[in-house]
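Checked the freezer inventory, then went back to the computational side. Two predictions to log before the end of the day. The first one is the construct we discussed on Monday; recording sequence and tokens without edits.
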Amino acid sequence: MSFALRPFAACLAAFEALEPLKAKKPRPVTRQDATHHAASGAWSRHDLSKFPRSGPQESLYQFADLEYSGIEGLDDGPRFVQWANFGNAVGTWNAVDNDGSWQCAPGEWIVALCELGRDDDDFGNTLDVAFACWRVEDGYGVMITPYGGAATRIPAVSGIPWPEELKTSRLWYGE
């Protein structure tokens, strides 16, 4: 299965079409203030301006480029997770997974699956989250979603073929 470049608008339409996660009264996907300093847009069914009681909050981001990010090659899982500082969308500020999983097609896409051991311990001691970044015709897309449904939700939005094998590394998330 290969990866096909698509416009970000197609990724956003696919994101909007996803079945809401655990929502009693699902909210529509709305554009919000970007929670990452370099993002040009953010979309979610959740209010990304508030720290969640239980994260992560599924969200989609648009980036014009990844210049100066340190992840331009989309080929380094540990560096990608450290860069992916989306604060309220993830639901923690500093955390580590000593056995995190990731895979990439260099220059095209990267995914990381983390069971983050949280240092704040406010809402429990671990947080399961998946991060993905991929090229789109007009820049890059990034998606954050709970680990559990990542294997179907990320490919539906991004077109990334879900990797059969994952690499294992220590993944640090935080500032």
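The second is the one RB wanted added to the comparison set:
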Amino acid sequence: MAYDVEAMRARLQAARKRARDALDGQFSDIYSELRSLDPEVIKNITSDVTDEETYEELIELVQEATQQNLDNAQLVARIKEMGSVAIAIAGKVSSLSGLPEFSNLLGDSA
């Protein structure tokens, strides 16, 4: 099977653009804070090995929310759809957990 260098470059370029857009977009504080979370914080949320995958999915979600120009309520609704681990990780991000929509989410799950 041949290795497609051009396809890899295109994927990397697209990933860089998504990250750059997220850093410059309306959720830039959330994206930056999420990216800077200590890996130990994520590992300590549950003993499940999928926490890291959920963390990466959460980062992708914030990138997509920026690209799709979602509002805070839509972002929080998508986090809720991701489940309790995503909610727990998002709760560690003060710029996200401080949103009224996120506080309402915690009230719903209590």
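For RB: The mean pLDDT is 83. The first helix runs from residue 5 to 24. Let me know if you want it refolded.
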